[in-house]
Amino acid sequence: MDNNLVNAMRKYIASGRNREAYDCLAHIYETEGPKARPFVLAFRQVLKNSISSGHNVEGNYDIMHDTYVLTAQDSFDDFMIAIEWYRKDEEKFWLVRRTQLLPVCEQLEALLSDDLDELFLSMPPRVGKTSIVMFFLIWYMNKFPGKSNLYASFSDTVAKTFYNGVLEVLQDPLTYEVNVVFPKNRVSRTDSKDLLIDINRRKRYASLTCRSIDGTLNGSCDAEGILIADDLHSGIDEARSKDQLAKKWETVRANFLSRKKGTAKILWIGTHWSVADCISKRIEMLETEEEAKSIRYRVFNVPALNEKDESNFDYLFHKGFTTEDYKVIRASYEATDDQALWLAPYMGTPIERDGAVFSPSELRYYNGELPIDEDPDRIFMVVDPAWGGGDYVSAPVFYQYGDDLYLHDLVFTNMDKYVSEPMVVDSAIKNAVSAMYVEGTRVTGNYADELDTRLRNAGHRINLQKTTKHWSSQNGKAQRIYDKAPEIKERVIFRDAKCREKPYQQAMQQLFGFTVEGTGKKHDDFPDSLAMGMVMAAGMRVARATVAKRWF
Fold first, then answer.
1. How far from each other are the two terminal CA atoms of the chain, in whole angstroms?
2. C-alpha 157: how far from chain center
3. Residues 277 and 367 both lie in one domain
4. Looking at the domain assignment, is residue 130 inside a domain?
5. Cα dihedral 342, 347, 352, 357 sign
6. Would you call 252 exposed, middle or buried from its count of C-beta atoms within 10 A (0-12, 13-18, 19+)?
7. What is the percent of the chain where pLDDT is above 70?
């Protein structure tokens, strides 16, 4: 670091000569690169303070712009701010959405910084996911103009739209100042028929090639930069068809993935429709195939509503979706028992229709109010434990009235045992549970003992049963759920959608997503706890006393 330049910069700042201070900063950054970023951030704060105080507002605003141009080649965030600097605030893509989409920006930068090899990005429709990817690709193409990149989607129309969007940004210097950030670069070739764009020179494999996934890929496009798979499935109709899903995956594996050269990165974006769609299949491959174990990947899902049931995409100038907007959309699907069209595109949760064991229309519901004219015969609880890490502790509380089992309360959480165990104990005490059944596994064998200790310490006496029976495979659990499904449908009465708290609603979503074939661990915790509840209920003999006339 040149201390003379640093000292000179500080003197200029102290005397209010910000233009001269910027010249020093530019020399420092040219020498040190991103290591000098702390100086850039500190200087921007000086400029913000000067603008806020009304001192040379226009001049300092232009200097601020220059600081973003200075760093834009090294920071995707700064690039998007810089190229839209002089647009009207309400017309800017990035600053209108930056607060909400900055985590997405950081995930994309992780690809370029070589922290990741593949990124799976899922967000609701019409929130800007394709646009931010488009800006990212434009930035990448200009940083590495010699590399070829490939964009693929489910149709020629979508590929054409993406191509036109990239071309618009590159060729409209009055709106987007890409040429200011990368003054040495130019568009050397465009081809609206084959959807090709070259930067600086015409290459055998273009800087950008856009194609439909079923289009001509072999021999026409290889990628040594980034491969982008954007919405490879056309929609729910395709997601319903196992044959179409299987055919599309074979195309992706044979034609799309084979275009990857060397250290190229892969970006997957779009709706996660099914546990058998291309995104799921690729993730499964990365998790299970030995030759893929070295590939670093991340699944990044931003749902429409967060854990507080609030919108993640409420942008400035009413550009996004408010919490109320999403609740109206959700209610419209709940009214028609069409959970898939809410969960998959809006919440990033694949849910299977074909082969689903539980349908909303088959279940029984109540309004959250238990029968008031009689006491329950028994209140019992079953616990399917977990240590966290993606698996859920599922602990439903059943109020039994004859053959009817009201599922009145529920613990459903993927937090670790130090969180889940107190939640289960509190629920048992609150509901005056008299009997509890806990299923142990090789991993969670002592969960029941720890619950027993906590309950005793709380002074709550309970008949606690536990088992150490281990189901030999995921298929074994699935078969148990399938076998008990008729009883669940006949006997269990669930809270209706209007009186479910968030964990209860999450559990119901998992129930509707359960399929016997290809279910996987993500969809069986709650249905498995219901199946255990049927086993426990069958082992209970309930005797009822009634008043009768005396005949002697």
1. 108
2. 26
3. no
4. yes
5. negative
6. buried
7. 91
Q: Which amino acid is at 487?
A: E
Looking at the structure, tell me whether residues 296 and 436 fall in a common domain: no
Per-residue tokens: 6: 């640093």
Q: Are residues 503 and 430 in the same domain?
A: yes
Q: In whole angstroms, how far apart are CA 227 and each of 249, 261, 277, 281, 478?
A: 16, 10, 18, 17, 37
Q: How confident is the model at residue 475 (pLDDT cuts 50, 70, 90)?
A: low
Count of all residues that appear for the chain in the document: 552
CA–CA distance, 479 with 484 (Å, rounded to integer): 9
Give the residue among 155, 141, 260, 124 at the shortest CA–CA distance from 196: 141
Per-residue pLDDT tens digits for 339-370: 778 888 999 887 665 567 888 878 999 999 99
Token digits of residue 422: 């107190």
Host domain of residue 485:
360-538
> What's at 365, amino acid-wise?
Y
Spatial contact of 141 and 108, defined as CB atoms under 8 Å apart: no
Based on the domain organization, do 224 and 279 belong to the same domain?
yes
* 279 pLDDT above the threshold of 80: yes
pLDDT digits (tens, 9 = 90+) for 401-449: 999 999 999 999 988 889 999 999 999 999 999 999 998 766 566 889 9
What count of other Cβ atoms lies within 10 Å of the Cβ of residue 294? 8
For residue 515, report the phi and psi dihedrals to the nearest 5 degrees. -130, 150
